[in-house]
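Comment thread on ticket #2218

A.B. wrote:
> Attaching the input chain for the structure job we discussed in standup.
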Amino acid sequence: MPAWGPLIAGARRIPWRALFVAGQQLYQRGRSFRDNLSAAERTELGEILRKSKGRRANLSDTEVARLTDLVRRGVKKQS
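C.D. wrote:
> Ran it. Output below, let me know if you need it in another format.
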């Protein structure tokens, strides 16, 4: 019987890591996406990223949802 614990833990890390890296890139180098987020939203994005310290466990579910929303809005293509 395989040990499911490590497999499940690994599966959870992949989406979080992708979300965290996308948020970092958007916050640090996202000049081309600057108009997609307001100054307050960019500040909030930075605060959430700093609070997480790269770990999903450091954030509440609400904060993860907000981070997801900010990243989606930040990378949204303008028509």
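A.B. wrote:
> Thanks. Noting for the ticket: Residues 4-75 form one domain.
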